[in-house]
Amino acid sequence: MAKQFRKNIRKNIGETIKKYRLAAKMSQMALAERIGISYQQLQKYEKGINNISVYRLQQLSEALRIPISSLLEGQESEMVAEEISEYGLNKEEKRLLDLFRRIDNKNIRRGLVLELKGIVEILKKKHGL
């Protein structure tokens, strides 16, 4: 799962680099020369095949005359989605979490957590865990 996540990030960043390069009406060769790499390496970045360092992102942003943050657009939502799926929640657990998050009252939330802790303690004693 984390491997696919990293692949998606590489691909998204690569597509963004290509989008800004085309908007600047630059060829891969011209942009690659500006930052001191081969056009094949730039191709690999744009296709999401190779990881790209922060230093290289900085060089690209300067060559394209855009803020470095522009090259990372949309990554936050990917990261949040991955963070949740990393836990491997099943359908029932996701439903429970969704319902819990809808409760605005902190006292009710706290009460539910205490209630669940109590249930878990009872089950531990019952099953000798």
Strand and helix layout:
Elements: H1 2-23, H2 28-35, H3 39-47, H4 54-64, H5 75-86, H6 91-101, H7 106-127
What's this, in brief?
It contains seven helices and no strands. It has 129 residues and is mainly alpha-helical.
Averaged pLDDT, please?
Answer: 84
What share of residues are in beta strands? Answer: under 5%
Terminal CA distance reads 31 Å
Order of helices and strands, N to C?
HHHHHHH
Question: How many helices does DSSP assign?
Answer: 7
DSSP strand count: 0
Structural class estimated from helices and strands = mainly alpha
CATH class type of the largest domain: Mainly Alpha
Tally the structural domains. 2
Oligomeric composition of the shown chains: single chain
Instruction: Estimate the global geometry from the Cα principal axes.
Output: elongated
The CATH homologous superfamily of the largest domain = lambda repressor-like DNA-binding domains
Give the low-pLDDT segments.
76-84
What is the makeup of the main sheet?
none
Name of the CATH architecture of the largest domain: Orthogonal Bundle
Radius of gyration: 23 Å
In the CATH scheme, what's the topology name of the largest domain? 434 Repressor (Amino-terminal Domain)
What portion of residues is helical?
Answer: over 70%
